[in-house]
Amino acid sequence: MKFELPQLPYAYDALEPAIDAQTMEIHHSKHHNAYTTNLNNLLEENEVADMSIEELLSDISSYPAGIRNNAGGFYNHNMFWQCMTPGGSAMSDELESMLAEQFTGLETFLSQFENAAATRFGSGWAWLGINSDGDMKVFSTANQDNPLMDTVIATEGRYTPVLCLDVWEHAYYLNYQNKRPDYVSAWWSVVNWEEVEKRIKSVIG
After folding, report:
1. Counts of helices then strands in the chain (DSSP H, E)
2. Pick from 11, 167, 32, 176: which is nearest to 87 by CA?
């Protein structure tokens, strides 16, 4: 089993002004690359059998903390890049209706997600997840944990992630310094809502 650092589907400067090119380059070529390399090395050292990243995460409590941290970092960043697109994409009427129904209004959803991102103490992620019944939930996780991990499922329930936001300082500090809420607010302008809707429909059909 060997995981590979994915190529970004856009240039490092393509998400400006929301996310600057230098941050994107460091984030992808240094941080994400390190998680990928470390994960592969740890899996080899621990003689972990071949499996998908999703299978590994589903039983992550069985592995050392290093594997948990790096497997999460690898998966989370893969998804994060896909959840963004230059200039953002328009939210379809169908998706807007779904979110409005789930959260008693689209603005309520946006506010809940922003709050989950802004109030995460220290490093972590904000998530929108959906379960097999079609119920959606906004929550956050610490460090590189994510909704597919059995450790997170034990507290939050079983939700498939469909949208994520990285709120580690390395994701925004060059441009926003300590103003995380400004970063979160600007990030909406590059969200790939087409990808979000595709992920939702892969769960509920």
Report:
1. 10, 3
2. 11
Residue 15 belongs to a domain: no
CATH code, domain with 69: 3.55.40.20
97 within some domain: yes
Q: What gap in Å lies between CA 34 and CA 157, rounded to an integer?
A: 30
Say if residue 142's pLDDT is above 70. Answer: yes
Can you give the pLDDT at residue 1?
A: 62
* Mean pLDDT, rounded, of the chain: 97
Give the predicted TM-score (pTM) of the model: 0.96
What integer is the mean pLDDT of 155-174?
97
Placement of tokens 């059909």 in the chain: 205
Domain that holds residue 148: 20-205
Burial pattern 5-39, b for ≥16 Cβ within 10 A else e, equals beebeeebebbeebbbeebbebbbeebbeebbebb
Q: Is 10 part of a structural domain of the chain?
A: no
Could you tell me the pLDDT band of residue 52, with boundaries at 50, 70 and 90?
A: very high
Catalogue the long-range contacts made by 171-176 (C-beta closer than 8 Å, 24 or more residues apart): 171/19, 171/23, 171/27, 172/19, 172/23, 173/23, 174/20, 174/22, 174/23, 174/26, 175/19, 175/20, 175/23
Task: Say if 154 falls within a structural domain.
Answer: yes
3-state helix, strand, coil in the chain (%, to 5): 55, 10, 35
The confidence score (pLDDT) of residue 139 equals 97
Q: How many domains, the chain?
A: 1
